[in-house]
Task: structure prediction
Amino acid sequence: MININSLRFLYHKESFELSIPKLSIAPLKKTAIIGPSGSGKTTLLKLISGILVPQEGIIHIDNLYVNELSDAQRRAFRIKSIGFIFQDFELLEYLNILDNILHPYRITKALTLTNNTRSRARELAEKLKIDDKLYNKPNELSQGERQRAAICRALLPNPKLILADEATGNLDPQNKIRILDQLIDCVEEHNATLIAVTHDRELLPYFDHVVDFQEFYKTEVT
Result:
């Protein structure tokens, strides 16, 4: 599904470079990305989703070369094809949980908000056991409930690719396993591919494949 070749990315004014000669991620699999802090794991997720663009190299997803798309095309691709679960959830505090889940449909013409979409949002919330919290604001929920709301939002458009950035990083041991199980169940139910950044090696047995970023980054740019 994802093929990366000769990729090079660097942040301007920072002594950081991510260089990936070759990386392939199979479809319908669960891949964990591990490695030291600052090694570029989150950067890779942003490159795959088109939030960032590499200075060199190819990012090929299905039949699309993401690195060759315009800003508008990358945005449309990201909204329609990718569910991004951010480490800090990125829930809007002034919206209730249901409106947070539906929010991507209200900010772009690439998605159409229908009654079926609203019903599906409620079904996802029920599956992840936050259906009784839909009219609460995010600050009224626990960390685990907020994370489940973020997962619902990411899964709502039925994306074929889920990118999770430390999705369980702020949770206690019991909740992180439970929420990872729920995320994996939803991904498998919808025949999606999961790429998850994690520092928690206890979670690695839940994945089909592990990519160690230790070999991919440089701390000094010449």
Summary: The beta strands are 2-10, 17-25, 30-34, 56-61, 64-65, 82-85, 161-165, 193-197, 209-212, 217-218.
